[in-house]
What does this fold into?
Amino acid sequence: MTATETCEAAPVSAAPRNVRKRLVPYWLLLPGILWLLVFFVAPLVYQASTSVQTGSLEEGFRVTWHVQTYWDALTEYTPQFLRSVLYAATATVLCLLLGYPLAYLIAFRAGRWRNLLMVLVIAPFFTSFLIRTLAWKTILADGGPVVGALNSLHILDVTSGLGITEGQRVLATPLAVVCGLTYNFLPFMILPLYTSLERIDGRLHEAARDLYARPVTVFRKVTFPLSMPGVVAGTLLTFIPAAGDYINAELLGSTDQKMIGNVIQSQFLRVLDYPTAAALSFLLMAAILAMVTVYIRKAGTEDLV
It folds into this structure.
């Protein structure tokens, strides 16, 4: 074979290798894509078709493109939608107020106790979500020490006047539901905050102090702005599951504290009205998606760079 023939053959043999190299990332993504198609896209399409069906369990359901179901579900269960957003937003704010100091302590002040504190933050995940919520029924029981202490301090008189408790009890009130949501989703706030705070270069704090900045100014001008990605991630990870939760309202609340998740659960498993349940699920997903989009535009990464 001449030199000219060798040069012509080399690019031809190299071409398939280059194609294979370019396809490697797609082959690696294939299992995840298949997983999402089977366990996310397919159920989503099925629920979408269910939401426009009519019929009954005895006669069977069939697709009739009855989109009126969405409007009927929205108008009938608007209070539960608003209550879910209110409870989830309140729990998210409380998680931020409680989680930020703790994440700050672990990131900058814990020292050799950092690993232990992180284990304590994650430890609740080793217990069932249901068991943790049931434990709050004991904590907030009418004859328990928490209610007794609140009564002795006359705090329940104030909260009852505000409408978040009823009389001298906490269970079956909005306060109990919000407390359960705050406790159960607090780790979802702390972990992103800690990750964001831990990445802050300590030399920035030293530089601010060298410029005679007070601790409050250092926090306001340096620490908090640099930790905003963790704040955004933590609020999203807390608000989204809290808005769709139904366990806390079911176990710690009453019929007056039912959230939209309780309605969806009841429509699916008790009433057996699958079209309404599917429509409510899509409405909840659309509402959360819209709120998250607005929130990210206002406080997302494009504003934090």
